[in-house]
Design a protein that fits this description.
The structure is a single chain. This protein has one helix at 59-65; strands at residues 7-16, 20-21, 27-41, 44-57, 72-81, 89-98. By secondary structure, it is mainly beta. The chain is built from 1 helix and 6 strands. Helices cover 7% and strands 58% of the residues. It has a single domain, classed as Nucleic acid-binding proteins (OB fold (Dihydrolipoamide Acetyltransferase, E2P)), CATH 2.40.50.
Length: 106
């Protein structure tokens, strides 16, 4: 059995916290990504709209810190709990790529 936990999602930056640093001096930044798309499920078209909490560390945190709200991007990484005491999921972005605004996003 594989321990798969890979996520890639496109969307727009809808909320951006301030860049902060861990006690070890590592940059960390939390943001929210809004996703809109058309998907196929059981042979039928389905409109998908969701928001996702994301955390970025080191290079990715510094990269996203320079972005403005509304910026289209693709985030990839893995899912984990928001904190030890929470069951809410959060995407830990290990790669962020900015994309052209006219590629299917609303």
């Amino acid at each position: 059995m594989r321990d798969a936990n890979c996520v890639e999602i496109s969307g727009r930056l809808i909320e951006l916290e301030q860049l902060r640093y861990t006690p070890a001096g590592i940059p960390i930044l939390r943001f929210r990504l809004g996703h809109f798309s058309d998907q196929q499920e059981a042979g039928a078209a389905r409109k998908v709209e969701c928001e996702l909490s994301v955390v970025a560390i080191q290079r990715e945190a510094q990269l996203i810190a320079s972005a403005t709200l509304g910026t289209p991007l693709i985030a990839s990484g893995f899912l984990d709990r928001k904190s030890r005491s929470s069951s809410q999921l959060m995407l830990h972005a290990t790669h962020i790529e900015f994309k052209n605004p006219g590629l299917g996003e609303k």
